[in-house]
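TODO from last week: model Altered inheritance of mitochondria protein 19.
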Amino acid sequence: MADKSTQEGMLRSLRNWGEASVPPTLLATLITAQNMRPFQPLPMMFPPVLLFSSYLNLSGYETDAAGITAAWSGLYGLLALRRRQGLKKKMTLRGVVRGASIGMCAVNVTGCGLAYVFGRREKAEESG
């Protein structure tokens, strides 16, 4: 079993991932690349929300942006997992992009969830 410092380092790395503004932008890019042609309206509702989450993060609302990213990444992951794919289709470029987006959803849910749960809202704490 891993020692305590290794576990804390891994949790800190995941939390740093969740507090960054790049993961929702990267996921929005992968979703757009996958669902733009042919255009699929339901999955294409996710990129604007993820880009807004990245904007919130850059505006200083890291904790709230992490919560939005975790929630919407989880929803997209569930939506993407509903579609079944054969083994032959998984070995195409489109299949690799789909796998990368599902994997990024899992990491975003974990990292952004940690950042949201353990994050602080400085403005709310100062006034309250």
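Done. Residues 14-121 form one domain.
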